[in-house]
Amino acid sequence: MSVVTKATIASFGGKLLKLTHNAATTNCEMAFNLYLPPQAIQNPRQKVPVLIYLSGLTCTADNCSEKGFFQHGASKKGIAILYPDTSPRGLNIEGENDSWDFGTGAGFYLNATKDPYDKGYNMYSYVTEELPKTVFAAFEQLDSSRVSITGHSMGGHGALTLFLRNPGKYKSVSAFAPIANPINCPWGQKAFKGYLGDDIQKWKEFDATELVKKWKGPLNALIDV
């Protein structure tokens, strides 16, 4: 689907773009932010690496781009930053707006299998497949062979699980105060039960502490609690 630019903001010599597109995986319009460093602006033919930043509970695509200012460091290193949203929005599912830690703003970067959330709460497929495909098609300056992932809290959980489930897909992974063992904490248990049902084995498929047990070979990951 085509990408629509809602706003362009000058940021540390580069541009912070406010973007939307219609996503098939989530069945709704999704908003995201993309920071293009000055290197990508000055020479559009120069490919720049991409860092995906996954935000935490209650956040939108705007939180880190407007409050965290990763752009400052990224501008110096020539790194583009992709800021996805944390869930689908406006699906009109009963109960999705009732609490801050489940539903809207709390997609947990998984693919829901429990009705009715399986109709759009597919943030795992959205972040790993549809969004990158859309962004790389729209912005030729981005290097699809150099993609890394990071996140905070629920986003740290997302970064770790996406990395561990897709060996070789991301160049690096880092997580800040991640929900690293969601099957053993109230937030994770509430979300997994609501999205995945009662099957604990399904829960383990999106739990970094369980996934790392299956990892083969060395693992270089930065986790800051």
How would you sum up this structure in a few lines?
This is S-formylglutathione hydrolase. The chain is α/β, with parallel strands linked by helices.
Task: List strands and helices in order, with pairings.
Elements: E1 4-11, E2 14-23, E3 28-36, H1 38-42, E4 48-54, H2 63-68, H3 71-77, E5 80-83, H4 123-138, E6 142-152, H5 154-165, E7 173-176, H6 186-196, H7 200-204, H8 208-211, E8 222-224
Parallel strand pairs: 4-5, 4-6, 6-7, 7-8
Antiparallel strand pairs: 1-2, 2-3, 3-5
Q: In sequence order, what are the helices and strands, one letter per element?
A: EEEHEHHEHEHEHHHE
Strand arrangement, major sheet: 1-2-3-5-4-6-7-8
Low-confidence stretches: none
Which CATH architecture is right? 3-Layer(aba) Sandwich
Helix content: 25-40%
Average pLDDT confidence is 97
Total beta strand runs: 8
First-to-last CA distance: 37 Å
SS summary, helix count: 8
CATH topology group? Rossmann fold
CATH class: Alpha Beta
Number of domains: 1
Please summarize the sheet with the most strands: 8 strands, mixed
Radius of gyration: 17 Å
Shape: globular
Keywords: Hydrolase, Serine esterase
Enzyme class: hydrolase
GO biological process, one term: formaldehyde catabolic process
GO cellular component, one term: cytosol
